[in-house]
Amino acid sequence: MNDEQQIRDTIQTYFDSMYESSADKVNGAFHASARITGYIEGELHEMTRDEFAGFVASQQPSPQATGETLRAEVVSIDIAGDTAVAWVRDDYLGLTFLDSISLLRADGRWQIYNKLFHVEGPAG
């Protein structure tokens, strides 16, 4: 499997983590040192991977369990050696997010190292 497909698989695990409210999938997609940062309604939110995993897992019932449709897309991916940057868009908790995701190849697999999120507005 080539790097782009491996990166897409990591991003899909991230999307699935939110859709299924799965801390295990967050931990599978994100590096242990990852940070998740962005603004919601003018307030800065900063989380570690473990804090984000706990937040995602707390969303019960999960979007999948309530029958919501998963709306998520990879907008672009740029790869440079063992690093990559991807723009992704998804609907989560009634909002549409545009995320800038930095990834790195660590321990032989692609992992999300940093996620900066921007709220575009209400979910479409």
Structure description:
There is one protein chain. The chain is of the alpha+beta class. Helix content is 28%, strand content 50%. It is built from three helices and six strands, in the order ααββαββββ. The chain has a six-stranded mixed beta sheet. Helix 1 (3-20) runs antiparallel to helix 2 (23-29) and helix 2 runs antiparallel to helix 3 (49-58). 26% of the residues are buried.
Order of helices and strands: HHEEHEEEE
Strands side by side in the biggest sheet: 2-1-6-5-4-3
* Poorly predicted runs: none
Backbone shape: globular
Distance between the termini: 33 Å
Residues in helix, %: 25-40%
Q: Kindly state the mean pLDDT as a whole number?
A: 96
Strand content: over 45%
Report on the biggest sheet: 6 strands, mixed
Number of helices: 3
Q: Tell me the total number of β-strands.
A: 6
Radius of gyration: 14 Å
Secondary-structure class: alpha+beta
Condensed summary:
The chain is α+β, with helices and mostly antiparallel strands.
Please tag this protein with its features.
124 residues, alpha+beta, six-stranded mixed sheet, 3 helices, globular
